[in-house]
């Protein structure tokens, strides 16, 4: 097993031995929504805030994110709660405008093969959270990371988020083999997204625990104060109460395994 | 979440709250081999012994198991070490002869859809370990179990053993979502086989831990005293030392999560 | 490309250059049903009759076929219309009783890995139609065929029937690459089942044509006089009129390609 | 079945009843290479020339295409042979510079979900050849097309190029069900790429024939004068002689089916 390289998101270390939770809504919907969720997840010991500004949606008619409208909301809320912030970049031309706003650029599953975007991110000094393409081989994922790291920006964190299989009772098949494989064969930190990896609210907590036990360096979880009314992916969002319970269980587990 | 039904394999309970390890060689190769491995895995707190008598092999030219030659070996060793024994049945005509020998019938992944075999097993009073077909939907797996349970034999334990996907760096993709899904939607106990679920020795331990964290009722692990010389699947077998380490870690984890 | 071995089903040759259509209902439901469909498909130039006696069904509560009740029906109808008959065998213990009834034993997709069944079929002198497991590698399929052929019964015809993928708009993904691959790498004849390969009535005809163009030696098609009332798989059955149209198109195509 | 909309690539119609072949090298490597191949494929009745300028490669160390160096080559050769030209665009920032050079923009499989790129292409008046993502659902593919068509550019041709499955003997699994499905459910023209769809030279011709029989409006085929020395994907390229043979067979088949 290789020694994991530490990636810093502001003052939060990923890969350094502390299990890191990234949490927040799928999409940023309003200032009050982001404020409320941020407060909750911070109280439950999430270390990094997530929230979608530009959304990748299957249909052009679906909600595409607040886009520029979200910028001021993010600025205020991340300052108020003093949390680093990660959000998805979907186009190389967005990088500059997002640069001041985000502390880590997220590259989504559908953009893992977007080598133009990856090459561009290599020119910046911000960490990149690289989600696995939902049908990407480990080898393709590792090589996609090297599109960023081989050009100078060594700050890449991988994120397993489930793969597409024949099974349809879950949204994706969360592949935790990948966590053990990446740990065994690379020095990249890796976190897990059990929200997309299951697509079913009640399966998120057991899969988050399994991720920690498999050796992941953290998780990214969707939390919403009112999942039924969420503008995207509400069916897989945890309530703040569920997230708090999850964090307590994770803490118990990671402390036991560390000893 | 449903309450899990308890299945008894002799005096060992699966689904009753204790995490149960089933261990042993892929194939029974000789008396001394089975004796040595049984002693090791018992010392490491495995509760049930496994060992292949009839093997399902892709090619008719591959080693097909010791078949009848293994019968006396099994009788002696399971008595000597006082361990319940599970082995695969591959043909309805084998059930009667295996009945006295095994304490649980295993139905392998390639036979999950063998409804003739399942209907026949419904007529006996021995528990059945039903592995998931490597491309079976959860729903098909649950319905396959009902081929046994709907006829009177209610003693079925499911076993997740990985599914077939595009990824080829691992032998199968271990789908731990299935554990959480089965726990949420059925009352069947479920264990995990991380040996076939990864096909890579060094990935077995993290995936066994992940299985426990996901809520599985146990694991089934291949252990071999000399994996390089094993007649089948040596690449995924743990050494007795690795298995002992695994069991200590599992114990730490399950105790922490139970508290 | 290897020369294809010819398999004879009574006086019908598969693999000998003539494109052979096997047609009939998914399940035999009654004498009048089989009689009517047989007459139609024979008039449209189908050469072999198909019809399920023992059905493999996901749920134990689904219709399992007429079983013994179908025996006399089959005897009368195949004699009346003078057509060879193929039907699925799902258990090695059925072989003897089916031996006099069928002219070719069909091994279904879910039994491709049922090596006990294949080994038993090797002892008989009837041709075997071996469907591809819905997640079977070409190599596994070819090796499964060798469980029959290596023991003396060289009369095996492969049948591509679609594989399980992430796509759910069709019941299976018909993999016609397999036809070209089998032709290139083996001497086994191969036919295609576009009914299961699509699971959608309106896609059967174009895929049957595509199968012929890819080089298949024949097709197996489900035809039902009243698809809406069929006891199984009615949604993918052609009406006799659709089948007649299909056969005319196939004939045009195969004649053109032969010239 | 819907009536297919006709897309014009200069004076060549796709979807209008004539089966259209697009051919050329995977990557443009030199002027003499493109010149030679263009002459061959035109003589064999290919109607549109293809050739990669910007390549999507798994590894940043692999050949990425000639990029700007190819521009003058393309200008000369397409004029000399009077053939419309299609090439892949991998970044929205390339559209303007490619606009004068290409007669159809190709969006590759790995960019099917690159909605930024698709939205940008909607602003131009050039046809778009949209390859199916190698794990894309039909529905996602159709909706991806609508990112272009819903904004005004109605000139979209779909291209089936194989999907990723468990089978590894072929590079991809060519899914010809998609051709019949798209014809049945949309009015978009669809062509097939049997080169990527098989990844095996000897399987390209039978799969091209199968595509035509399934109802496709055309094919896109990789042809190289010296496949063993090709800078990318030589193993799946046809020689000019093989391509010529393929075109004669296709012609026979499509004429027969039209009558």
Average predicted local confidence, pLDDT of chain A: 96
Secondary structure class of chain A reads alpha/beta
**Count the helices of chain A. How many?**
9
- The total number of structural domains of chain A is 1
**Level-1 CATH class name of chain A:** Alpha Beta
> Oligomeric state of the chains?
homotetramer
CATH architecture grouping of chain A:
Alpha-Beta Barrel
Residue windows where pLDDT falls under 50 for at least 5 positions of chain A: none
CATH H-tier superfamily of chain A: Aldolase class I
Return the string of H and E elements of chain A: EEEHEHEHEHEHEHEHHEH
Tell me, briefly, the overall form of chain A.
globular
Task: Summarize it.
Four copies of one chain form a homotetramer. By secondary structure, the first copy, chain A, is an alpha/beta fold.
Tell me about this structure.
The structure is a homotetramer of 259-residue chains. The first copy, chain A, is of the alpha/beta class. Chain A has a single domain, classed as Aldolase class I (TIM Barrel). In chain A, 37% of the residues lie in helices and 15% in strands. Chain A is built from nine helices and ten strands. In chain A, the strands form two sheets. An eight-stranded parallel barrel of chain A has the order 3-4-5-6-7-8-9-10, surrounded by four helices. Chain A has a two-stranded antiparallel sheet with strand order 1-2. The model of chain A has no long low-confidence stretch (mean pLDDT 96). Chains in contact: A-B, A-C, A-D, B-C, B-D, C-D. Chains A and B meet through helix 6, helix 8 and helix 9 of A and helix 6, helix 8 and helix 9 of B.
């Amino acid at each position: 097993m290789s020694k994991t390289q530490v990636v810093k998101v502001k003052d939060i270390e990923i890969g350094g031995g502390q299990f890191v939770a990234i949490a927040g809504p799928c999409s940023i919907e309003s200032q009050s929504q982001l404020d409320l969720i941020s407060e909750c997840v911070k109280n439950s010991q999430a270390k990094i805030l997530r929230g979608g500004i530009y959304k990748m949606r299957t249909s052009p008619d679906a909600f595409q994110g607040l886009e520029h409208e979200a910028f001021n909301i993010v600025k205020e809320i991340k300052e108020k709660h003093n949390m680093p912030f990660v959000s998805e970049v979907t186009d190389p031309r967005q990088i500059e405008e997002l640069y001041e706003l985000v502390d880590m650029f997220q590259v989504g599953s559908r953009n893992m093969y977007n080598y133009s975007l990856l090459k561009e991110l290599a020119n910046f000094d911000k960490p990149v959270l690289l989600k696995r393409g939902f049908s990407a081989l480990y080898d393709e994922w590792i090589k996609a990371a090297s599109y960023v790291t081989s050009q100078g920006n060594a700050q890449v964190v991988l994120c397993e988020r489930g793969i597409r299989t024949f099974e349809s009772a879950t949204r994706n098949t969360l592949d935790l083999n990948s966590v053990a494989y990446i740990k065994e064969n690379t020095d990249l930190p890796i976190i897990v997204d059990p929200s997309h990896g299951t697509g079913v609210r009640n399966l998120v907590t057991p899969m988050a625990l399994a991720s920690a036990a498999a050796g992941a360096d953290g998780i990214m979880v969707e939390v919403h104060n009112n999942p039924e009314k969420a503008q995207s992916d509400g069916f897989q969002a945890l309530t703040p109460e569920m997230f708090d319970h999850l964090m307590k269980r994770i803490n118990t587990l990671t402390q036991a395994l560390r000893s």
